[in-house]
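Below sits our specimen:

——
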Amino acid sequence: MTYVVIGGGVAGLVAARLLAKAGHDVELHEATDRLGGTVASHTVGGIILDSGAESFATRGGIVDALATELGLGLDVVPPAPDGAWLHLSRGAFPLPKTSVLGIPGVPLATDVTAIIGQRAALRAFLGDALLPGTYGSRATSLGELVRKRMGSAVLDQLVAPITYGVHSAHPDDLAIDRVAPGLIHNLLRENSLARAVQTMRASAPAGSQVAGIVGGVHRLVTELEADLVTYGVTVHLNSRVTPDQFSDATVLQTAPAEVSTTVTLATLVVDVPALDAAPRGSGVLVANPTSAKALTHATAKWPWLAARASGRHVLRLSYSGAVDVSSETARTDASGLLGVGVPAASVIDFDTVQWSRPAPFAPPADGVTYIGEGVSGSGLANVVRQATEAAERLLALAEEDDEA
């Protein structure tokens, strides 16, 4: 059987590897001059850093399993235990410890009331506690669910800053099953959204929801490329093709990328000893941002990176849209979000990259198997899982044909 994979992002690499590993002939066509898509690297201040995804969700163990197969299993590591903070116009506060995407498991907890106030916390608690579990269970978006059960304050001041920072989208634009698989199931079982969150957190203790890879998540692409060579995949770079060019092959294609959002990432490498204390934990998410929507204190989040940075600090700020971010803008924003001055003289190096995220794609019935973020949802865990399942379905069909 011959397969053609169109698109050399992580989804295409995963699918091509599985098909070739099963003994089939596979061609992979990538329109640009490199593989990996938004999983990439750049060098800032002499340090090789992720320029795209720098962590992945651990749910289902799908990315961890892939990393292990690729020989990276021992390098999969959790982040440092210090959590992120939320930046409001009236100050910065630690994010609630018991939460899922900002949805509080204990609405009246001190770390919740500090952010949204007693009145809004009481609304969230009573609204959720008095409503039947079925209320909101048919919601089509995360925003609709939270708004119905816990109110707009929880949505606007807790959930939205996190989804903007993680998924570059408002909760109203995020399908629940894509960003929080199992949440509705637990809501119906527990008869409460707060208890559903507690259940999910109990099965994924603090610090275990995401993981990274020593040296950077971009190492996944390096090892996937090596496996394509091992299994005999023919790779064509700078190759723009369409499915109708391959009438004698089974085609898998990365979903056409109608751009939904664009994110600009600005990375600073600085020498600021005051940041050694990680004053905002692993980073800051911003409610109602007017500039940077989030900051990751990467050397506080990843001990392996702190060791490589030799006392310097790596700060990564994200901005909505294709905006022109200068070193001065990033430095000023970092100072405000961290509560620590980042002098101009402390900046060792600076770089920016921009990534576009595709809009959700509804695959047509045209005989092509579609993969990638447009059909899987954002995040490496979703992308790897969907591409794996798509390739495995095709392999099962090929096996059935052989037996027929």
Observations:
- The longest helix spans residues 380-403.
- The mean pLDDT is 93.
- The domain at 55-95+206-215+259-357 is CATH 3.90.660.20 (Polyamine Oxidase; Chain A, domain 2).
